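Q: You know discrete backbone vocabularies at least as well as I do. I have my own habits and do not want them to colour yours. No explanation is needed for now; the record alone will do.
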Amino acid sequence: MTDASPVTPAPKPTPAQGPLADLVVVEMGTLIAGPFCGQILGDFGAEVIKVEDPRTGDPMRQWGRSLPKGQSPWWPVIGRNKKSVGLDLRQPEGQALARQLIAGADILVENFRPGALEKWGLSYEALSAINPRLIMARVSGFGQTGPYAQRVGYGLIGEAMGGLRHVTGEPDRPPARAGISIGDSLAAMHAVMGILMALHHRERTGLGQVIDAALYESVLAVMENLVTEFDLTGYVRERSGSILPGIAPSNAYPCANGEMILIGGNGDNVYARLTEAMGRPDLKSDPKFATHAARGANQHELDAIIADWTSSFELPDLLALLQAQGVPASRVFRAPDMLEDPQFAAREAIVSVDHPVFGPVRMQNAFPKLSATPGKVRWPGPALGEHTAEVLSARCGVDAARLAALRERGVV
């Protein structure tokens, strides 16, 4: 097949469950920013066709601190609810097959460096000419335009440029990371929001459009009043560890058994209930702590008093006391705590999914919960190229003989 081969849109698949079940998504991209966008769409019923390099696949297939049974524990989650198609986009035949797939799709998700798709003849202009309803979500470090567009932009760079890294961690230490790839995930979520908005626009006009989701802008979007406060007052927000300056009490406090408890008692009514639980009504009337502003001004002194009190309790006993008094409090949850917690169980926040190698695998469910059309984890991340024959046959008319020839040439 050559670049000039005709494009034949394929019929839509039989609808499955979920609010997005009538949508076909082609996902091109690797790691987290693009694939997490595809994961969310797949969780809510979209048919997500993940196009991967047929030789290596998405690097997430090899990621993990350990590889139980030689398999990545990342891949079952971020690859879930997707069909894997091996396709070499650097070859003209692979590009032509990609165009056929996209001709029958509603959404294209990609997170290559800007210009990669254009180099492969897969620009939005070329694709929208054969599919005017196409919505293309482009996730990149710095966006598709501007002087930084061609720079390599991983999540940590977006977190740094968007302002998150500077305010994360202890004030006397270098900037810390959140412990997860939050910049990538935020960009993916903004891409999903853009897709849903574009779908609404398409309902009215019949036309698709491009969503340009930059990592640094997705981080910037959640930075609250960081820029505005500086603009109006000259104040630069700094790292403050486990507290927010001026918001007290709201911190992590030690317990007798060595565990920590988080307490949020900064509102006036909640603070009053906390002082009752502590048996310290004097803390409510003391001018140093009587108002929100006063507590903020004397934050460290108040935290020391509370820490001295919490350190005399075992964590379970202290949680029970504070919950009885209506004071927001929590243990610092780890994975084992989540698997044992009744709230997680009651809401099925964690589900078990059958995996061909691991057997039953537990992972987070699809969120948020929808009352009429909830999301669902239908299967874990597939094997590389598991659905190549199925998808190319149904959507591109590729028969067994041609598939064998494509495989021999390394196209699929």
